[in-house]
């Protein structure tokens, strides 16, 4: 096998979060599975890999060592590395598409790779809630065994769901919310956005009782599901709170007796900036609830009350459903951290 043919099928993506040695190893495995590389083919030397793929010699050697560990390659002193077998199992290779980076997503990812195994290649892409970037990334489809997608889009939601629906359902794991336009037997590990905010506010009812109005800050162009607004409105109706849904925190006049629920951290920062210019005391005159707990929120202004998804559970369940190779529909737990901001 000549080197030109080899490098037609073996590439390394500098932008992927998958370690380069695993990208090298799994590109070779993919070519073997496709019948491109045959038993006893001689592979390029470490120096040739280094020069052509622009990787270090150590990375190239580690990739070959991994394949020797799997029994795919054999090393012959003085000659090089040969393919020892073309009879291989179907190794896992994951495409992970996340709408944005956050503390919660980091918790998910850490638990996911802990439970799945650090030697499993994961191509990790962030598409910033942008459908067109998501589409370009998904069109780079390679020989993935699973597509793990957190599908939050500011625009083109229907187009995004239609695109996701084209993926093989046995390979599809959808996280964080259900997609009604995606059919077939696939895995969904989701938040109950409507039920979670209702139950969280119900758990905080005693602390909320000293206020008369709840204000949900929810942008018109938010990527978050409108289910949050439905759950919020249902709670306020059930327990006779005055209520409002605000598109922005910037232009509102803060009032005593109101609780402000911030679904993103930018609004939380803006709200705290507005409060510091008043005489209101947080937790007495004005209440604050923020979505998604972070270590910092435990200490901000004496502690911010938070409603959070269990992102570590999301990572655990995602790894389990992939290893078990079984389609499931699972609702995630949520957690209310009641602190002095109420």
From TrEMBL:
HTH gntR-type domain segment(s): 18-86
Entries under CDD domains matching the protein: WHTH_GntR
Keyword DNA-binding: yes
Annotated InterPro entries: LacI/GalR-like_sensor, Peripla_BP_I, Tscrpt_reg_HTH_GntR, WH-like_DNA-bd_sf, WH_DNA-bd_sf
Domain of life: Bacteria
Molecular function via GO: DNA binding; DNA-binding transcription factor activity
Pfam family for this entry, one: Peripla_BP_3
Keywords: DNA-binding, Transcription, Transcription regulation
Coiled-coil region: none
SUPFAM superfamilies reported in the protein's UniProt record: Periplasmic binding protein-like I (SSF53822), Winged helix' DNA-binding domain (SSF46785)
Record carries keyword Transcription: yes
Protein name: Regulatory protein, gntR family
């Amino acid at each position: 096998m000549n080197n030109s043919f080899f490098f037609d099928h073996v590439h390394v993506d500098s932008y992927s979060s998958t370690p380069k040695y695993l990208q090298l190893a799994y590109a070779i495995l993919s070519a073997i599975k496709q019948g491109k590389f045959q038993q006893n083919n001689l592979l390029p030397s470490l120096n040739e890999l280094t020069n052509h793929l622009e990787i270090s010699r150590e990375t190239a050697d580690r990739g070959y060592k991994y394949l020797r560990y799997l029994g795919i390659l054999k090393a012959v002193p003085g000659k090089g590395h040969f393919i020892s077998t073309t009879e291989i199992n179907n190794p896992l290779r994951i495409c992970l598409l996340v709408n944005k980076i956050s503390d919660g997503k980091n918790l998910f990812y850490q638990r996911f790779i802990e439970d799945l195994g650090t030697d499993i290649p994961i191509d990790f892409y962030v598409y910033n809630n942008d459908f067109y970037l998501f589409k370009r990334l998904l069109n780079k489809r390679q020989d993935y065994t699973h597509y793990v997608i957190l599908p939050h889009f500011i625009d083109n939601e229907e187009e995004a769901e239609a695109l996701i629906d084209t993926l093989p359902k046995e390979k599809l794991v959808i996280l964080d919310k259900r997609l009604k336009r995606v059919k077939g037997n696939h895995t969904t590990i989701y938040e109950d956005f409507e039920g979670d905010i209702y139950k969280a506010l119900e758990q905080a009812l005693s602390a909320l009782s000293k206020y008369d109005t709840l204000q949900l800050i929810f942008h018109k162009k938010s990527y978050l599901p409108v289910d949050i607004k439905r759950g919020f409105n249902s709670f306020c109706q059930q327990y006779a709170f005055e209520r409002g849904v605000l598109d922005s925190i910037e232009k509102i006049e803060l009032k005593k007796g109101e609780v402000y629920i911030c679904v993103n951290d930018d609004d939380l920062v803006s709200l705290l900036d507005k409060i510091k210019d008043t005489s209101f005391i947080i937790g007495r005159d004005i209440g604050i609830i923020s979505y998604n707990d972070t270590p910092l929120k435990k200490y901000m202004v004496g502690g911010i009350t938070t409603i959070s998804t269990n992102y570590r559970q999301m990572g655990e369940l995602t790894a389990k459903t992939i290893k078990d190779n079984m389609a499931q529909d699972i609702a995630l737990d949520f957690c209310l951290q009641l602190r002095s901001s109420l």
